[in-house]
Specification:
Length: about 375
């Protein structure tokens, strides 16, 4: 992929961009295999899942700089804001949305936040694109002061972007390196963005997490479903379930499925999808995954557990619980092979039998890896 921003040194986020894509993928596969080799002798490696080299991102986190009259959407650099509205990682439907969103900033008089001076209101515009071409936009503001103006000019924004379904204001008053705050004010009647993945309509609320690369996420969920169906468990826990991607893919077939996630918004989204699909044996709980597992009686332990933790991994407590449990299979989806290796070392009774690298993040050193564990 060629990128004029990278070539001009305006943005160097894609650290592997100068490597041919096959070399990037081979390097990720090699890195992961080297980390897991001591823990998984004889494990089968499936062919890696590739990604399009450009236009694959379904979300944009745009720092807003510049002025009310001329807002700049992109990243913050040493000399000020860099306009990345034509970043080749964004598909055309996202690129086309940035202009109307910038116009809405001007109409609503949303003053861009000056990081050095700690003045201004608007910090970020966060945009998500669904596989069907619908959009969600979130305006991250320091206070509620400008929310009435944003509401006033919302009809003009909706006219300019007919596929814009969900709009919200996130209130983030603190000056720290966190993208969003806890308070979310919904500005539209529609509360969720419908994300159709493998024929399943997942509901995404403003503060819910979804993978950045929809095509690769769909492949990840299919892989998890294939492993679960082959194991044929009667009961499954999906820990760190997010909006229920894995849980909803493996539901049905007379199977009891419980999804656990700390985010109340994500759980509400997952419950809505399960209700719409008539999955009355699939439930979701807004709890800490480790605390949930440790609190369940031995008789309630499932046949199979899916874990999809953040970069820190599941950690020693949950790894030890899995090791000492009667769980027969674990499907572990990891975005950090280093923490995955640490967790696997604490679960020697759960033997890695099959794995697959999925290139969720082309042109960077990051990737997703899914591993099937079987009790030996």
């Amino acid at each position: 992929m060629q990128c004029h921003h990278y070539d001009a040194w305006r943005c160097r986020s894609c650290t592997l961009l100068e490597q041919p894509y096959p070399a990037q993928l081979a390097g990720k596969q090699r890195h992961c295999a080297d980390l897991l080799a001591p823990l998984a002798p004889g494990m089968r490696w499936l062919d890696p899942v590739t990604s399009p080299e450009s236009g694959f991102r379904n979300k944009a986190k745009m720092v807003v700089t510049g002025t009310v009259e001329e807002p700049v959407l992109g990243i913050l650099a040493e000399g000020g804001g860099v306009d990345l509205t034509d970043c080749p990682l964004y598909p055309a439907a996202l690129q086309d949305a940035f202009g109307p969103l910038a116009e809405a900033v001007t109409r609503a008089r949303l003053v861009p936040y000056d990081v050095r001076a700690r003045r201004g209101e608007l910090k970020y515009v966060l945009v998500t694109l669904s596989p069907d071409g619908d959009l969600m936009a979130r305006f991250v503001l320091r206070s509620t002061e400008s929310v009435p103006r944003l509401r006033k000019h919302l009809p003009a924004l909706l006219d300019a972007l007919p596929r814009l379904r969900v709009v919200s204001a996130n209130i983030h008053p603190e000056h720290k390196a966190v993208v969003e705050g806890e308070t979310e004010l919904l500005l539209t009647g529609t509360e969720t963005l419908r994300m159709t993945v493998n024929g399943i309509v997942l509901h995404l609320r403003p503060q819910s997490f979804f993978q950045t690369n929809t095509d690769v996420a769909a492949a990840l969920y299919r892989q998890g479903r294939d492993w679960v169906d082959a194991a044929a468990p009667s009961s499954v826990w999906d820990l760190y379930c997010g909006v229920g991607g894995f849980a909803l893919h493996v539901a049905g077939a007379g199977r009891d499925v419980v999804g656990v996630e700390t985010s109340v918004e994500a759980v509400a989204s997952a419950r809505l999808t399960a209700r719409d699909a008539g999955l009355d044996r699939t439930t979701f709980r807004a709890e800490d995954a480790t605390a949930f597992a440790l609190a369940q009686p031995e008789a309630a332990q499932p046949d199979l557990v899916v874990v999809n933790p953040p970069r820190r991994g599941v950690g020693p407590t949950l790894s030890t619980w899995l090791e000492e449990s009667d769980v027969r299979h674990v499907v572990y989806s990891s975005c950090n092979a280093t923490s995955l290796a640490c967790d696997l070392a604490l679960m020697p009774s759960l033997r890695p039998v099959e794995a697959r690298v999925l290139d969720m993040f082309p042109h960077t050193a990051h990737y997703e890896v899914a591993v099937l564990l079987e009790r030996g």
